[in-house]
């Protein structure tokens, strides 16, 4: 079964330079769990594995650095798998703000 992201798109995403803290990808995973359940997160992880980048999002360390080229396909997959629009991505960002604030407090 082909991936949701074409080989050409993936090659473009892989060119993105830089690093991000794990907090972002971990928060995306927590949001998917909240909205789509365990099956939704499993689907996201399966699609990342098809791209050659198997990730267990719940094992991502929040304060560790990860290549930006892993977060970009994550966001594209979230949009395509779950048909999220701009409004839903704004919800993800609000969730991220709350999630990171709680993390900082503890």
Could you characterize the architecture of this molecule?
By secondary structure, the chain is mostly helical. The chain has one domain. Helix content is 68%, strand content 6%. The chain has four helices and two strands; from the N terminus they run αβαβαα. The protein has helices spanning 7-14, 22-50, 68-82, 86-105; strands at 19-21, 65-67. Strands 1-2 form a two-stranded antiparallel ribbon. α2 crosses α3. The longest helix has 29 residues, at 22-50. The protein is globular. The termini are far apart. The relative contact order is 0.20. The mean pLDDT is 89.
List its salient traits.
4 helices, 106 residues, mainly alpha, 68% helix
Name the beta content range: 5-15%
The backbone outline, from C-alpha atoms, is: globular
Order of strands side by side in the largest beta sheet?
A: 1-2
What is the number of beta strands? 2
What is the terminal-to-terminal distance? Answer: 43 Å
CA radius of gyration is: 13 Å
Q: Helix fraction?
A: 55-70%
Query: How many DSSP H or I helices?
Result: 4
Mean pLDDT over all positions: 89
What low-confidence regions span 5 or more consecutive residues with pLDDT below 50? none
SSE order, one letter for each helix or strand: HEHEHH
How many domains in all? 1
Biggest beta sheet summary: 2 strands, antiparallel
- Secondary-structure class: mainly alpha
Draw up the topology in text.
Blueprint: H1 7-14, E1 19-21, H2 22-50, E2 65-67, H3 68-82, H4 86-105
Antiparallel strand pairs: 1-2
Helix pairs in contact: 2-3, 2-4
């Amino acid at each position: 079964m082909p991936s949701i992201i074409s080989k050409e798109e993936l090659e473009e995403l892989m060119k993105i330079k830089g690093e991000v803290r794990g907090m972002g990808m971990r928060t995306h995973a927590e949001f998917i769990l909240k909205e789509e359940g365990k099956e939704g997160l499993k689907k996201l992880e399966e699609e990342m594995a098809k791209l050659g980048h198997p990730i267990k999002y719940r094992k991502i360390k929040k304060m560790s650095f990860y290549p930006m080229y892993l977060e970009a396909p994550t966001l594209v997959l979230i949009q395509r798998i779950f048909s999220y629009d701009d409004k839903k991505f704004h919800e993800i960002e609000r969730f991220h703000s709350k999630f990171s604030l709680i993390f900082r407090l503890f």
